[in-house]
Amino acid sequence: MVKLNRIYTKTGDTGTTGLVRGPRRMKFDLRVDAYGTVDEANCAIGLARLETQHTPDVDAVLGRIQNDLFDLGSDLATPGADNPNDPPSLRVTPGQVQWLEEQIDLFNDRLQPLTTFVLPGGSRLSAELHLARTVTRRAERLVVELKDREPDTSAEAVIYLNRLSDLLFVLARVANGDGRTDVLWTPGKFR
Asked: Domain boundaries in the chain?
C-alpha cells in the first residue's frame, strides 16, 4: 500500500529522481521520460472522462485504463529483474492487454468501416480521446526506445500502449455517434 505523508521531500532538488529500485536517475533520463509520458496520457484520459456523463460504458473503460496506466508506470519505474527474496514487482500482464483487445472488438463492432482517415474532432469527447491517443503513441515510442537501450524493459508495456492507442481511436469514433459524425480527411481538398 502506498502511503504519502509528505508531498515534498527535497530529494529531487538536484535534478534526480528515485526509481523503485536501482540508482537515482536524472529527471531527463529516458526511463523517467517514458513513465512521465504514461502519466501524461493518464491525465489526458482523465480530462476526456469529464465528457463521458452520457456514455457510462466508455467512462467505465477509461476508468479501468487509468488504473492500469498506474500499473504500467510502476512497471517502467522498476528496472531490472526481481530479487527472488523480494515480493514480485508490479508488471503489466498479458491479461491487461487481452482486455484492451476485447474492448476494441466490442466497440469496433458498432462502427462502420472507414474509407479514409479521421481528423480529430466532431465532439469534444472525441477530440479529447484523440489527444489521449497521440500522447499514448508518444509514450509507446519512448518505451520502444527504452526497450532498445535497456532490453530488460517490459515487452508487455510496449504491447499495452500499442493496443491502448488503438482502443482510444475506436472510442473517439464511438464518441462521434458511433462514427456517424466523424470528421473525415479529404486528400488534397484544398490544393
From this structure: 26-79+90-184
- What is the assigned CATH class of domain 26-79+90-184? mainly alpha
Q: How far is CA 26 from CA 20, 88, 130, 146, 177, in A?
A: 14, 25, 31, 15, 45
pLDDT by residue (tens digit) across 123-156? 999 999 999 999 999 999 999 999 999 999 999 9
pTM for this prediction = 0.91
15 class by beta-carbon count within 10 Å (0-12 exposed, 13-18 middle, 19+ buried): exposed
- d(C-alpha 72, C-alpha 112), whole Å: 32
3-state helix, strand, coil in the chain (%, to 5): 55, 5, 40
